Amino acid sequence: MNVDADLDLLGVLVSRRDRLLEVAGVLRRYGFASIATQLETAGGPRLGVVRSLADRLADPELASESAGERLRGALTELGTTAIKLGQLLSLRPDIVGAEIAAELALLRSGVPADPPGHAEATVRETLGADVDTLFAHFDPEPLASGSVAQVHRATLPDGTPVVVKVLHRHVRRRVLEDLELLDALAVWAEAVSPTAHQLRFAGVAADFDRSMRGAVDLRDELANLQRFTAMFADDRGVRIPRPYPERSGAAVLTMQEMTGHVVSDGASVRAAGWSPDELATRTASIYLTMMFRHGIYHTDPHPGNFLLTPGVITILDFGDVARLPTSKRRELEDLVAAIGSGDPRASTDALLTITDAPPGTDAGEVQSDLESLITDHLEGDIGSLDLAALSRGLITVVQRHDLALPAEIALVLRVITLLQGLAAHIGADIDLRAVTRPFALDLARRRLDPREAFGRALRTGRAWERLAETLPGEVSSLLQQIRREGGADLRLRDPDGIADRVVDGLLTAAFVLSAGELVSRSVPPKIGSISVPGLAVAGFALLRYRALHARTGRGPSALARLRLAERVIRSTRRPSSE
Predict the structure, then answer these.
(1) Is the predicted pLDDT of residue 506 greater than 80, yes or no?
(2) What is the pTM of this model?
(3) Which of 145, 192, 176 is nearest to 19 (CA)?
(4) Cβ atoms 162, 256 nearer than 8 A
(5) How many domains does the chain have?
(6) For 166-229, what is the HEC assignment?
(7) CB 229, CB 242: distance < 8 Å
């Protein structure tokens, strides 16, 4: 039991006891404890008792609903933070399972609008002026209301039509309080539950915390609008709403009102002057460009977030934006390149690296599943790779072996899957391989680019340099610890160099084993298929062996070495006072 986690949780529970009681009541009614135990894989018979008790305490009218339906209902009733958490978990089938993820994807964030006058008061408090001063017209009746904010039509003094997004009253305070409770619960759960620890609940909660803090500070969405406007400045086929920073703040965002046909089905797409195939192809290309070339992307390719005019797609709602850091992009490139090359072992190594696989993971079984995945989705070279099918397959493999993808990569795979779902929703009849092929090829080309290879070599060299710098100190610390804890006296008397030769032998063996491991795993950078670090370490092994052989040839006889070894052993057994 982690005492610090217990104390932190206790402090938060006391300070947020009213909200905790409200949450506990809702979760009890929906039988949440029973749902949670279905996600726990290492609890044994004890969890069966918990599930049975939870089912008896739950509302009988809800007993016939599935776990996913009950969880969705509970999160909806708990409000903004819980709804957003459910939407996030719907993107993580590797954590909650495919069935619950599909149910959570149905969560709707619509909530009743604030009473009349509240939006105007928030504008005045945030921008320091009344709506009559800032706008020629401000419609007091909201156009739409979501879990975080509501949207009003307005007109600028120069006649420009705009929409004004206004946070719900007190939503920021409520969200921050919920986040404090959620963070403490996640840290505690990770400390007491092997499954929560394996799935990195604290890390998921931290990612959600950052996302929600951005959602309740509209300056983040303002920055996103500016960033994506610049990103697509040269693409006349993509429109992003123009923000007005002088009429925006932490709780208010003013942006250009966009017009166009709402995407609802294939008929609505055709009415806007598009064919479903064209829209699916263009949307997938836009999103893959965001992810793999810019490293920042809109995370919700939902039909409601698009408006269409002939030849132009307008993307709405930039409150949910994610980044794909360079390090994670490289890990994903390694995995795609390994699968694209048809190498199950390299694919397994890449996946286990990405997921930071726990001890006990059966690499052989993972490799077997990946080999099946490659057989099913690779027809020839990497150009035939279907990234959408690959994404679904990888999520299945990860879940089957109780692995956990980093949030950055899990979200990328989920968005790729959603793009295929959008194509199906509007009735597109296309093979997304035609869309994803250029990006798969681009990933492969980057792996072969001499500049990328040089950069990987530099990073590998720095890692070896850091190892060389830190290893002597770490070994020294280890020896000191052994000595402090009553280990053998390591100050050997070795006038004829026996200990030197023993050390040389151990080093030579270590170099040989390391070289074999590096070569077998094809650790980059490589010449052809041969690992350069593996060759270098093999060279060191050869030099050490030659030095050891030369020194042995000049040394004392075997009998003399045995006698000397006996004297050394006896000397280490003498009392320290000698």
Answers:
(1) no
(2) 0.65
(3) 176
(4) yes
(5) 5
(6) EECCCHHHHHHHHHHHHHHHHHHHHHHCHHHHHCCHHHHHHHHHHHHHHHCCHHHHHHHHHHHH
(7) yes
